[in-house]
Design brief:
The structure holds 2 protein chains of 2 kinds. Chain A is an alpha/beta fold. Chain A has 8 helices and 8 strands, in the order βαβαβαβαββαααββα. Chain B is α/β, with parallel strands linked by helices. In chain B, α5 links the parallel β2 and β3. Classes of the chains: A alpha/beta, B alpha/beta. The structure holds zinc ion (2 copies).
């Protein structure tokens, strides 16, 4: 059943590594990795798709090689480049589910808006130090990212992974939960995390679930949307107009 | 044993965390973890332990890699079908962190005697009622994990905490706490990474370990449920 399905994974790093491995193992027919970066030595503490000899290689190339070796039946596609407002819709259109495994706010808003405009389900995950979050945004069935986070945080107010650090196992758990949610969306089985946000703390090994609701005033999925096409996300998250 | 110049860059995202720091990373490098079972959840656990910089990894698994394993166990690949699972898993683990001291146990008889030489043992296979007490009585902490279909469970027994005898075999089975059996990749990832997380917390001495608690994951509903258990009177506890 999964052999006829396809996913696009935005980011072949901490979250994308376990998600891609597990979806390939599960036999999802077509998996596209989208990432512009090269493998860095400091990635290897958490990005299990990349090995020491891969340092300096494009992440999509290094990742695709592992997925093909694990399951040769999977068609693995490599998009080596940045996701932008100019390419997102065309890039997402051929896939059943998009996994947002990115690590920055501009990409998260872009992935969200492109998925809402295309009516495509999205699995969302994020991590910070010892804490993680996972949810599913399914247009028409629950909130979108903007319903929950209408405004990006002030520039500089959220430290990057390089500045704040992250425990290496954290994206492993969050990315694995994301992969399971993708399997549920692809098969139509089970209860995906639509309207539910799972919050995880690795230090205490505790999970909490909070309800998240669709906002009728949401600028992209609300009753009178003001965003009808993709915008400039760097500017939106960089402080312009805030 | 000190951190190499490469280690300082490789583990910079750990070293900057106050809970880890250079001292914690050094502790991880000096530590040794035995991973018994390299099926679905054991694969995920082992990959993340190697990536996190656990310096000593001992691998044991009684089986060989089959095509069916590859639907769940991501430490193997098609080129290693037919190899003993422990030897197969050693390949990516070495490639991830070449400074790691890796040992592959071929015989189950070697396993029992070897358990106490480790800080932590991660068990997703084998006879838990025999291996658990041998590890904990020898001073190691034991992390138990198993994935079955889209479900799985994890718990920790440390020298001093309630043991699986306190929980009881029937209750453990009701909670889904038994070795890997047919786990699908994503669910096994969740369970195996939880186990690796507990192992790392135990080595670092940070956070609240999952001792006296069983964490269950139900993948189809995405529910995480915790059941706690205490010392049972009359239990010939593993540490006792
Ligand atoms: Zn919305
Ligand atoms: Zn006991």
């Amino acid at each position: 059943m999964l052999a006829g399905k396809s996913v696009l994974i935005v980011g072949a790093g901490g979250l994308g590594s376990p998600a891609a491995y597990q979806l390939a193992a599960a036999g999802v027919g077509r998996i596209c990795l989208c990432d512009a970066d090269l493998v860095d030595l400091s990635n290897l503490q958490r990005q299990i798709l990349h090995f020491s000899p891969d340092v300096g290689q494009p992440k999509v190339m290094s990742g695709a090689a592992k997925l093909r070796a694990l399951n040769p039946a999977v068609v693995v596609e490599e998009y080596r480049g940045r996701l932008t407002a100019a390419n997102a819709r065309e890039l997402f259109a051929p896939y059943d589910v998009v996994l947002d495994c990115s690590d920055n706010f501009a990409t998260r808003y872009l992935v969200n808006d492109a998925c809402v405009l295309l009516g495509k389900p999205q699995v969302h995950g994020s991590i910070f130090q010892f804490d993680g979050q996972v949810t599913v945004f399914q247009p028409g069935a629950g909130p979108c990212y903007r319903c929950v986070y209408p405004q990006p945080p002030a520039p500089g107010s959220v430290p990057s992974c390089a500045m704040a650090g992250v425990i290496g196992v954290l994206p492993g758990l969050v990315g694995s939960v994301m992969a399971m949610e993708a399997v549920k969306l692809l098969t139509g089985q089970g209860a995906p995390l639509v309207g539910r946000l799972v919050i995880y703390n690795a230090l205490d090994m505790e999970f909490a679930e909070v309800r998240i609701r669709h906002d009728p005033a949401c600028p992209i999925c609300g009753e009178a949307p003001s965003i009808c096409e993709l915008i400039d996300y760097e500017a939106f998250c960089g402080g312009d107009g805030l | 044993m000190s951190l190499s110049d490469q280690d300082v860059i490789r583990f910079s995202r750990h070293i900057i965390l106050p809970e880890v720091g250079g001292r914690g990373q050094k502790r991880l490098k000096e530590a040794s973890v035995l991973v018994a079972g390299l099926g679905a959840s054991g694969s995920a656990a082992a990959l993340y332990l190697a990536a996190a910089g656990v310096g000593g990894l001992t691998l044991w698994d009684p089986g060989v890699v089959t095509p069916q394993d590859l639907q769940g166990a991501i430490a193997h690949d098609w080129s290693r079908i037919g190899l003993p699972r422990a030897r197969s898993a050693a390949v990516p683990l070495r490639a991830i962190y070449p400074e790691n001291r890796m040992d592959v146990l071929e015989r189950e008889a070697d396993l029992l005697g070897d358990l106490p030489a480790h800080n932590v043992v991660v068990l997703s296979a084998g006879n838990w009622a025999e291996l658990g007490p041998a590890a904990v009585r020898g001073g190691a902490s034991a992390v138990f994990c198993g994935a079955h279909g889209a479900d799985g469970a994890v718990t920790v027994v440390t020298p001093g905490s309630p043991c699986l005898g306190c929980l009881g075999a029937e209750q453990a089975s009701l909670l889904g706490l038994f070795p890997d059996h047919g786990g699908i990749a994503a669910a096994a990832g969740v369970v195996g990474v939880m186990a690796a997380t507990e192992a790392i917390k135990l080595i670092l001495g940070v956070g609240t370990p999952l001792a006296g608690r069983v964490m269950r994951y139900n993948g189809w509903d995405c529910r995480f449920e915790e059941a706690s258990f205490g010392a049972r009177e009359g239990c010939a506890c593993w540490h006792g």
